[in-house]
Amino acid sequence: MTTESPSHAAPTVAPGASYPEDVAVRLRADAAVVVARYPDERSALLPLLHLIQSVDSFVSPRGVAFCADVLGLSRAEVSAVATFYSQYKRKPNGRYTVGVCTNTLCAVMGGDDVYDAVSAHLGLGNDETTPDGVVTLERLECNAACDYAPVVMVNWEFFDNVTPDSAVDLVDRLRDGQAVTASRGPVVQDFRAVSRVLAGFEDGLVDDGPGAGDATLVGLRISREHDWRAPAYPSDATQDEADTADAVGHGDGRTGLHEVGEEQSSSDHAAATPSESTVGQRPDQPVDDDAKADDTKGQAT
Amino acid sequence: MTNSHSTLTPVLTDIWDAPRSWTLATYRDHRGYEALAKARDTAQADLVELVKGSGLRGRGGAGFPTGLKWSFLPAPDGGPRYLVVNADESEPGTCKDVPLMMANPHVLVEGVAITSYAIGCDHAFIYLRGEVVHVYRRLLAAVREAKEAGLLGDLEITVHAGAGAYICGEETALLDSLEGRRGQPRLKPPFPAVAGLYARPTVVNNVETIASIPAMVLGGSEWFAGLGTPKSAGHGIFSLSGHVTRPGQYEAPLGITLRQLLELAGGVRAGHRLKFWTPGGSSTPLLTQEHLDVPLDYEGVAGAGSMLGTRALQIFDETVSVVRAVSRWIDFYKHESCGKCTPCREGTFWLQQIMHRLEEGRGTADDLQSLSDIAGNILGRSFCALGDAAATPIQSGLTYFRDEFEAGCHTPARELFPPHRSVLHATDSEEVPA
Questions:
Q1: Mean pLDDT, to the nearest integer, of B92-117?
Q2: Which residues form the signal peptide (chain B) (predicted)?
Q3: How much of chain A exceeds pLDDT 90, in percent?
Q4: Same domain? A101 vs A179
């Protein structure tokens, strides 16, 4: 590993020569934006591979050459990276990647049935594409939405709590050319468009979809119901006593952290006292940490 | 510990139900970026002391004290120092950072800005797994909004999308990936604090860890430590999934128990009972019914022979075959093994062969001993924790449910535990002979 940019001779032709000229011009401009985000240009390789997929729908030979030329790497070095990551495709991808989570929890909750149903309905195995080029089916590993199991991702947008029937309906709508809206996200864009977002280019859809789904909010709703809150910040209490008229007035009537005035009742104060006594026992821990820090640093340096 | 009756203590989750919770305007209405202003009026060393004194431990699974990690950075030498946020949430069962960043990306951005100031970093990175494009949109927009509003000063924040590789959640593999390479772990030492991104001093922290910083700056270390237990301070998000009535995110002081959480979640799904669960994702040893009252803090769960991990509580009821569950997790580890070190690369391959045999009811007399031997030869001998993680469900599965593995020598798991009994959707499979 080096912190210096690799020195390399300027390519004899501009990167992207195997693309049509208008595409090459756009790719070079986009690549310059991507490279500028990093102190070391090689860090741009992953987003550049997403960018290639936004044009070719897979990591094409000409895309590998483009990345290599832009970053001063060999094509073998670029391929070695591209083949390590599961989102980079080795053959042209369908317009929509339909990924069914079949990791343990989703599988048990119905993901195996969902995968089998879609697979049978489309006549596809893992990483295969319908003849019309619309749907590529994949088995997914855990996609961090286990509270919505079973989960399907379409072009990396969430479809929560799916069933075999709803998943089959979903792929039918995709093949019919209908717009489908993610459970927590926008109308699903095609694979190339989403790949461009993954290269770090915003697409104006950020405000679509909710901030959170029901499962995300389940604990918070229970807290609201019972009026459960985290303790108020001590500095607010002090400030509030000193200047009640001008306490940080951002309360919206919902949360304990914000409703500074309400936290001043005697019952709340009494409730806070035991925690203060707990805190009183704590200073030994940071002292230990300090000692450990010094020890470890002594060993490390 | 907290307000007398507050079983749950929303801090990070507290604005998730606000309209357009992901925008700068909403975040500022909820005191967003106040902590950053306060932090900038505080000496850098005092911020590190604040975090140390709070007792905050890394929320990405390992539980290393956060302030201590920051303090490991060598003294400034005039060259760059980096903060890299690990947003590669991929551990099976773990689903807390993704909803956090979708609902409130600004709290992470503010935490990044405060941490960067505290450690003297001018360019921070958020490494997000690539498979959550809407979360990426929210993060890109949040950084742009904060920058345009002048909140970040000279700090650059690059939000980087990965491309699908569980191993990149391992911090040194993440750094290699961020440098544009195959995501394979590095030999430690040197630790990232000394030679991290581009071989420069680097702090790598989990999303929830960094997102906990703004509230701590406003509340103080004693406020933070007033939640949780003496050695496991603070609030954390507990993610319940699987066979529970109300799966989802529950933010509570560390030390809450599964019994308490299940009560809030409406219990195990109607008509069924708890069989086994993971306290912190599939890489943490399985626990059972007998561990319902274990305090879910670092020491409590370790005392029960497992790890708190990421508080990813995957709940499985009595319809689920342990052999099938473990077999699928081994598929995962085998698929995600980066191939760099032999014990993990070869070991996960052989574990998979054996688990598939057992799941099919075709296990041999030697298979259980082989499983145990292979797992034991991976654990502690692989390059990074992924290998250990693969051994974990095998060993804990054998500890608590050995009879099911033995049954795998003659009876397929699907006969002992017909899968249709576990699914959520309606099936008519009751008529199908098992």
A1: 98
A2: none
A3: 72
A4: yes
Give domain status of residue B6, yes or no. no
pLDDT at B400: 98
Q: What is the pLDDT of residue A240?
A: 56
Whole-angstrom CA distances from B253 to A229, B100, B111 are: 11, 17, 20
- Joined together, the tokens standing for residue B28 give 């500022």
Which amino acid appears at position A292 of this protein? K
Cβ-contact B387, B341 below 8 angstroms: yes
B193 and B51 within one domain: yes
Residues B47 and B152 in one domain: yes
Determine, for residues B20 and A211 on separate chains, whether the beta-carbon distance falls below 8 Å: yes
Between chain A and chain B, the number of residue pairs with CB atoms below 8 A apart is 383
Mutate to test the interface with B, among A35, A220, A221 (most CBs of B within 10 A): A220
Q: What values do phi and psi take at A207, rounded to 5?
A: -90, 0
Does the pLDDT at position A6 exceed 70?
A: no
CATH number of the structural domain spanning residue B265: 3.10.20.600
CB-based contacts of B337, cutoff 8 Å, min separation 6: B167, B344, B345, B348, B386, B387, B390
Distance from CA of A155 to the nearest CA of B (A): 8
Of the candidates A228, A233, A297, which has its C-beta nearest B223's C-beta?
A: A233
The CA distance from A274 to B1, in Å, is: 7
The mean pLDDT of A126-140, rounded to a whole number, is 98
Contacts of A42 in chain B (CB under 8 A): 179-181
Q: What are the angstrom distances between the C-alpha of B411 and each of B178, B325, B362, B415?
A: 46, 16, 7, 7
Q: Which of B288, B317, B346 is the last residue of a domain?
A: B317
Name the residue facing B241 among A147, A209, A286 (closest C-beta). Answer: A147
Residue A217 lies in a domain: no
- Are B179 and A40 inside 8 Å of each other by CB? yes
> Bigger pLDDT: B177 or A6?
B177
The enclosing domain of B62 has a CATH number of 3.40.50.11540
The answer to whether residues B207 and B155 belong to one domain is: yes
User: Is the pLDDT score of A62 beyond 60?
Assistant: yes
Number of domains, chain B: 3
Domain that holds residue A77: 21-82
Predicted confidence at residue A273, as pLDDT, reads 33
Same domain, residue pair A112 and A158: yes
Nearest to B72 among A223, A285, A297 (CB): A297
Does residue A57 sit within a domain?
A: yes
Tell me, yes or no, whether B221 lies in a domain. Answer: yes
Give the CATH number, domain containing residue A111. Answer: 3.40.30.10
Which residues of chain A neighbour B166 with C-beta distances below 8 Å?
Answer: 141
> Which residues from chain A sit within 8 angstroms of residue B29, using beta carbons?
250, 252
Cβ-proximal residues to B26 (8 Å cutoff; 6+ apart), any chain: B15, B18, B19, B20, B32
**What is the number of other CB atoms lying within 10 angstroms of the CB of residue B234?**
27
% residues pLDDT > 70 (chain B): 97
User: Count of domains in chain A?
Assistant: 3
Range of the domain at B201: 24-225
Partner residue opposite A230 with nearest CB, options B2, B18, B419: B2
Indicate whether B375 belongs to any domain.
yes
Q: Do B226 and A272 touch (CB under 8 A)?
A: yes
Task: Report pLDDT for A246.
Answer: 44
* Higher local confidence (pLDDT), B424 or A7: B424
Pair (A69, A137) in one structural domain: no
The continuous run of DSSP H or E covering B229 comes out as strand B228-229
Mean pLDDT taken over chain A: 83
- pLDDT surpasses 60 at A95: yes
Structure token pair of residue A84: 């390590």
- Chain B residues within 8 A of A110 when measuring between CB atoms: 423-425
Residue B172 shares a structural domain with residue B257: no
B264 and B334: one domain?
no
Query: Are B215 and B282 in contact, with CB atoms under 8 Å apart?
Result: no
Q: Is residue A297 part of a domain?
A: no
Q: Do A228 and B8 touch (CB under 8 A)?
A: yes
Asked if the structure places residue A202 within a domain, the reply is no
Q: Please check whether residue B3 lies inside any domain of the structure.
A: no
User: A261 to chain B nearest CA, in Å?
Assistant: 15
